[in-house]
Specification:
With about 220 residues, the chain is mainly alpha-helical. The protein has one domain (about 40-210). It has helices spanning about 5-10, 15-20, 40-55, 60-70, 80-85, 100-115, 125-135, 145-165, 170-210; strands spanning about 30-35, 35-40. α4 runs antiparallel to α5. The protein is elongated and about 75 Å long.
């Protein structure tokens, strides 16, 4: 296909496609004449991945280039490629702060207790430690008592996520699913949690107050 058709099929403007080619994010098309290049389904798939990393994941061009480098490395295991994408989706923290030391120990103990095959320096571990440290500062340090319950629920969600991701074959499709699933999947999970809170609250406290309506 010509670049115009590629643009129509992906919704990416032609100047943007050319920019991605110049930045090395998208392979150049195969020259069919001095001024014409042809593109195929691999370019369409790569464009879809770039847009997912950019629009959904919020990654900068440099971070996208790092993820794509991992995708194109045939020696890198698939779970390492998926990790390279997932690691860049979370907030960046400085984990050297002293107030985080206790929270980091708690997180490492959780990882060991659950038998998770996760390195203690994983960015998500730092995110969790920051959240726990914030809870402690707000006087809710006992929230750590719920960690294993949350971890068990997270394991079920992770299994469902990977069952969905595993339907796709191409590594680029897998990475795209991870990006979309991580960002939008968390939004879905958060909304479901809030709905469940309303239901549990109505069932637990509604009866005490004599409310007939579950929506009270």
């Amino acid at each position: 296909m010509r670049i115009g058709e590629l643009s129509r099929r992906t919704g990416v403007p032609v100047p943007t496609i050319k920019y991605y080619v110049r930045e090395g994010l998208l392979p150049p098309g195969e020259l069919s004449s001095p001024n014409q290049a042809r593109y195929d389904e691999t370019h369409e798939r790569r464009l879809r991945l770039i847009r997912a990393l950019l629009d959904v994941g919020g990654l900068k061009v440099a971070a996208i280039a790092e993820v794509l480098q991992a995708v194109d490395d045939p020696a890198r295991p698939v779970h390492k490629v998926l990790g390279a994408a997932a690691d860049r989706l979370g907030p960046q923290h400085d984990t050297d702060d002293e107030e985080l030391s206790e929270a980091l120990v708690t997180v490492r103990e959780l990882i060991e207790r659950r038998g998770w095959r996760v390195h203690a320096d994983n960015p998500a571990a730092a995110d969790l430690a920051h959240a726990l440290a914030a809870l402690d500062r707000l006087g809710h340090g006992t929230f750590t008592e719920l960690l294993d319950t949350y971890a068990e629920a997270a394991e079920q969600v992770a299994r469902a996520d990977l069952d969905y991701v595993d339907r796709r074959v191409a590594v680029e499709d897998l990475v795209e699913n991870v990006v979309i699933g991580t960002v939008l999947g968390e939004a879905v999970l958060s909304a479901l949690r809030r709905l469940a809170h309303v239901d549990r609250s109505a069932r637990r406290f509604g009866k005490r107050e004599g409310n007939a309506s579950a929506d009270a």
